[in-house]
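Subject: mismatched residue count in predicted assembly?

I count 736 residues in my input, but I want to confirm that the predicted structure covers every chain. Input:
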Amino acid sequence: MLPTFSLQFPIPISDYPTITLAHGGGGKLSQMLVERMFVPAFANPELETLHDGAILDFKLQIANSKLTNADGQSAICNLQFAFSTDSYVISPRFFPGGDIGSLAVHGTVNDLAMCGARPRYLSAGFILEEGLPMEELWRIVQSMAAAAQAAGVRIVTGDTKVVERGKGDGIFINTAGVGVIPAGVQIAPGRARPGDVVLVNGPIASHGIAIMSVREGLTFETAVESDSAALNGLVEAILAAGGEAVHVLRDPTRGGVASSLNEIAAAARVGIRLDEARIPVLEEVRGACEILGFDPLYVANEGKCLVIVATDAAEAVLVAMRDHPLGRDAAIIGLVVAEHPRKVYLRSRIGGLRVVDMLSGEQLPRIC
Amino acid sequence: MLPTFSLQFPIPISDYPTITLAHGGGGKLSQMLVERMFVPAFANPELETLHDGAILDFKLQIANSKLTNADGQSAICNLQFAFSTDSYVISPRFFPGGDIGSLAVHGTVNDLAMCGARPRYLSAGFILEEGLPMEELWRIVQSMAAAAQAAGVRIVTGDTKVVERGKGDGIFINTAGVGVIPAGVQIAPGRARPGDVVLVNGPIASHGIAIMSVREGLTFETAVESDSAALNGLVEAILAAGGEAVHVLRDPTRGGVASSLNEIAAAARVGIRLDEARIPVLEEVRGACEILGFDPLYVANEGKCLVIVATDAAEAVLVAMRDHPLGRDAAIIGLVVAEHPRKVYLRSRIGGLRVVDMLSGEQLPRIC
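Triage response: the counts match. Full output below for your records.
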């Protein structure tokens, strides 16, 4: 059977004849692959929302024919699931605050939570390189099990492949996840509205800087730890406080806060204004960013959540976030505006206004 | 929070200090990793069935309070899903009869179908090596899209990572899938019963021999093609014909028919007897096996399905299989017996009886 999509090559081959590291960086080239290759080829409404996961609608007639509603119609069961996947190739495999195993659980749990879902089940696909020490695999597996238990999800199915020495890099892990979206919850990047408030649950850029410090052999007075964490509990608290006023949830991983907010601005055709002075960054992370030449807005996070919420509910959501262990330093960092649609602006500490574009090129390879 | 599982190292480290290719081969060492490391660490009832995928039960109270049954109880919606994952690392990426893209769709569709589910949605996680020609990626993506369309599934969510040159091997693909199990269907390796009949939908070992021929540069008078195919349509026909008499479905991929039947014999605590003369193998595949020194029973398949069914329904299931394009050469190849539980025996063409053990060691690395 022939596919119905055009067979024309979708990307200017003279500009990009081969895959580069930047195609996996979460910035402009990643976006190009998704929007010009994967979405047209796999064309379907679920994929086109460009959410952190797909929202799946199941509408099922109830088998029991004795069940009817007041109008004599038989019962229909409406269920919404979220379904998401990520592969983890982080280097190094063990880092301050976590390892590839805990990260592989947190990352997919968070992608489901960002769809407003309650994460329930994970799969785990291992691609191991011949020669990986068995003891390292065991530490990673234990870490996954502990992270899954803490997040309240089960790893229910899996697969293991082994590739020859020199054809992999120790261990890559893919996790996919399934979660149930409670009735009434409707979270999507396209739902940001002018007047909405942008919040974050704490200081940004810690994960990327923790990884980079290890790689570069940097030491600071205070060790920088990854913020890697499962955010599903925090999201439940946010939804309990904000209800339908919660419009968008997003975990700013690869490409950082800047890239995530650009994606939201594009999906909702709105502008976003950030206030630099309000964006929390740990002192040691800020220092490391200066030394390494990074802008914290572009550095990856693994335990952070951007929340876009209607103004009236913002205070209640902020209070709920601060009541949660993973939201103690939550802050309002910006506003959604009707002006400059599809663009993100930052008001700097000294009062200037500058465009915050998506990440272009590769800032930190293999950060997750 | 601490995990509840023991932290003791589960595998004799002096015997297996590092991961070997055989740990990914689908034989005894693969089984050891699953049974002694993953299952104890991730302990949960879904994982312990050792099915091709996990069976997930969702029991949900219907929101509409007007709906009650004859006893005045409110409606409960019972849904069973199958959830499965596989990573694909096959080398070479393009082979006679398919490529890594079509394989990544067929493999996961088949794992869901082997749970008795109707496959609905797939995820796709790409791990690309820096330097992969963009044109190759596009051919693979098109092939996935065409395979998904032909199988009636949608690729609804995905992820792309890029690793440095020399840290991967062109492209690895993980797919996970979700399918709905129709009410009344109950398929599990543990359901094989003495007296049941073992069927296969056509000649075995073609996939493994097709891959091996390309790798070894062998040419035969008739080219050997992979049998890679989506089996969900065939499974629907089998279930329509056999109903609840269909006890087990299994696609004998890595480790071949021998390893799959050993897993079933162990799960159901039954013996299985095969009749060599009844097992279909293409002439050119048999010839290649002789040249290469392989036993077809241990060679991987990607479009084959073992069916274990109660005797009374065997004829109807066989007819239904032969009516389907992917089952034209279906055959009854053996019987489930009460004798020699957990063992598989083969009656050879010359009448001798020999034990068919699980694959031990690595026969064909990176066959899928």
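Confidence is low (pLDDT under 50) at residues 1-5 of chain B. Marking this ticket as 'not a bug'.
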